[in-house]
Automatic annotation (TrEMBL):
It is found in: Membrane. Keywords: Electron transport, Heme, Iron, Membrane, Metal-binding, Transmembrane, Transmembrane helix, Transport. Residues 27-154 form the Cytochrome b/b6 C-terminal region profile domain. PANTHER family: CYTOCHROME C-553-LIKE, MENAQUINOL-CYTOCHROME C REDUCTASE CYTOCHROME B_C SUBUNIT. It comes from Robertmurraya beringensis. Belongs to the cytochrome b family. This is Menaquinol:cytochrome c reductase cytochrome c subunit. The lineage of its organism: Bacteria, Bacillati, Bacillota, Bacilli, Bacillales. Residues 178-253 form the Cytochrome c domain. Component of the menaquinol:cytochrome c reductase complex. The chain crosses the membrane at residues 46-64, 105-124, 136-154. The keyword Signal does not apply. Gene3D superfamilies: Cytochrome Bc1 Complex, Chain C, Cytochrome c-like domain.
């Protein structure tokens, strides 16, 4: 070493430089923050799961499933209603441009484009920014999808005929009746079976005749003056025949 020249350092390239960025500390360095997986941690998980399971069972007991009567594939007047997470697609199929001859557009093309756009959004907008305001394309796609789903779901709930749907799905007690009786034949002759069905279980907006709570006078009044979707003057027979029909229908009460 010479005066005024300073010190010189010699490095050895055989010694690797170990860099460990962003590696978290081992859990053993946090005393009191850890616990044994078995049985301590699993026991807590099971206890939480048991609480939720018991709560769910209580909910199912307090609010049973809204079951309807047995499905009838011949009932073309039935008003279907899917689960809430499909209501927006159900509403979409009600519009003229997505139903009838254009059903494929509402069932496949429009949903395919919408979900395809959401799937492709992360690949189209590949910027490093994480703030929604810095990613307008991905944010716009998501906001548009949420707005469309919210609007269509609301429209489906607001325009659905809940009263008719409740009436058509009611489970009606089975009541035995004679299809060879004069009252049943009068129902057939006056076109009543076309709406109320050969089994008198009704369908769509047409109520069931079996299990009704009508009196003979109620039946006469409905046959003459109509009620609900049934117009007046449907019965074309005599007063004696009306009496027979009214007695027959009023006898179809549930046990």
């Amino acid at each position: 070493m010479h005066r005024g020249k300073g010190m010189k350092f010699v490095g050895d390239s055989r010694v690797p430089a170990e860099r460990k960025p962003n590696i978290p500390k081992d859990y053993s360095e946090f005393p009191g923050k850890t616990e044994a997986f078995w049985p301590n941690f699993l026991l807590k998980e099971w206890m939480v799961g048991a609480v939720f399971l018991i709560g769910y069972l209580c909910l199912t007991i307090a609010h049973p499933s809204p079951l309807e009567k047995m499905a009838d594939p011949t009932d073309t007047a039935y008003i279907p209603l899917p689960d809430w997470y499909f209501l927006f697609l159900y509403q979409l199929l009600k519009y003229s441009y997505a139903s009838g001859p254009y059903n494929a557009i509402g069932a496949f093309i429009i949903p395919g484009l919408a979900f395809g756009g959401l799937l492709l959004a992360p690949f189209i907008d590949r910027g490093p920014e994480r703030r929604p305001s810095k990613r307008p394309l991905a944010t716009g796609f998501m906001l548009l999808a949420l707005a469309a789903i919210t609007f269509l779901t609301w429209e489906s709930v607001a325009t659905h005929d809940w009263e008719a749907a409740k009436a058509q799905g009611q489970i009606v007690a089975e009541v035995e009746f004679d299809q060879e009786s004069d009252g049943y034949k009068l129902l057939d002759q006056n076109g009543c079976l076309a709406c109320h069905g050969g089994d008198l279980q009704g369908g769509g907006p047409n109520p069931a005749l079996v299990g009704n709570e009508l009196t003979a006078d109620d039946v006469k009044d409905i046959a003459k003056n109509g009620r609900g979707s049934m117009p007046a003057g449907m019965f074309k027979g005599t007063d004696e025949e009306l009496e027979v029909l009214a007695e027959f229908v009023s006898s179809l009460k549930s046990e």
